[in-house]
Description:
Blueprint: E1 9-17, H1 21-33, E2 38-43, H2 50-59, E3 63-67, H3 74-85, E4 89-94, E5 99-103, H4 109-117, E6 123-132, H5 147-150, E7 153-154, E8 169-173, E9 178-183, E10 186-189, E11 194-196, E12 202-203, E13 216-220, H6 226-235, H7 249-254, E14 259-260, H8 263-273, H9 283-295, H10 312-326, H11 333-348, H12 355-368, H13 375-396, H14 400-423
Parallel strand pairs: 1-2, 1-4, 2-3, 6-11, 6-13
Antiparallel strand pairs: 4-8, 5-13, 6-8, 7-14, 9-10, 11-12
Helix pairs in contact: 1-2, 9-10, 9-11, 10-11, 11-13, 12-13, 13-14
Amino acid sequence: MVDRNLFLHDLAIVAIMKNEGPYLKEWLDYHLAAGVEHFYIYDNESPDNQAEIAAPYVKAGLVDYIPAPGKGMQMPVYIDAVKRFKFQARYMAFIDGDEFIFPKTNRPIAEVVDEILSGKPNAAGVAVNWHCFGSNGHEAADYSKGVLERFTRRAPSDWAPDGLGNAHVKTISNPRKVNFIGNPHFANYFEGLYSVNERGGIVQGPFNQPVAAEKIVINHYFSKSREEFSLKQNRGRASVVMGNRYVDELFDVYNRNEEFDDGILHYRDERAKNFLPPDKSHAAEKLLNALMANLSPTLLPSTPPEFFAGKMETFLTCRAVAAYLRTQLPDDSPAKFFEEVALKAMLRSFDGMSFADARLFLRELPTLLMLPYPVVADIRRAAFHIIPLLMNTFRINIMWRDYAELDYIRDLLKLTEADNFAER
Length: 424
């Protein structure tokens, strides 16, 4: 497990939003109180006041507000967030603006995730079931009150018609273990890794049955009032390119009001009593101290080889942190020093490296090869050794998509090696 002090954010949320201005402040404030430290919000061409509502949070360093124009942008956005920010956040949650993550105790979200993942080395994320809330009989929108106050009636927990409904999950992941995201509800991890539900059961897709919602759940306010659902229909869906309107029948399907449930209001109020916004004023100092703690042992001749085993994710994170600090510190020489130390430590962690760590290393290889350190030549040679081994595994297991990706990387390495030789 990577030292949590190496991350700018313990838990971040990734969301693509359009015309969420009336709801955004409540959504942000709730999740901040629930322990979320940062938000990567992608704006899908919102003409309303969404950007204006987000602006104070952006100024406070709590939100990265990123333009994402176009149709069917949800998966591209998720993939982009993993690619760009996976070393900034220890965990990433991938949810929508009408979804609220609700731990069933007065604890921060990341603490509950830690508990669920504890002792499960191959679990790379938690699949959290929905609780779908209805309209409470509201026809018209009343923006004078928040979503959580207005909609307090939901479907029964076991409501899962044809395996849908509350059987849906959303994911809180270790983003460094994510291979790709091809569905809004779950992440595809590197081989041998998976999500688990709150009971520890393996979840391989967008659904989990029986519904598990005793420790943590996602309150999904899909329909809201009929007027608000009509506005959602006009807005369209971020996950599909063509035919992206919500059909009228979906309101009737998801407008379930059988059970009264205001538990999230009590959780919000309890969390708000002692809430302090995340303090990032000493982030650079904290990260530099974490680099020293994690990398100093690698400089000692007496450090045994066992120390490096299973630490590729740690050393890649250290490298990324050092690169970040190069842009933050008035004097970047300490960051450059630790960046090179992290690269050297990487080389010593190749023996006994897990399959997932090898995949993570190769994903970062293009960035590593651009760095101006002598050790990069050794990293290139190590990659040449690793790639054929992985390709053989993919060939045996008929995993041609992954095989093709590594074949491309191998060819690219050969070309850049030839270029380097020609320059010399």
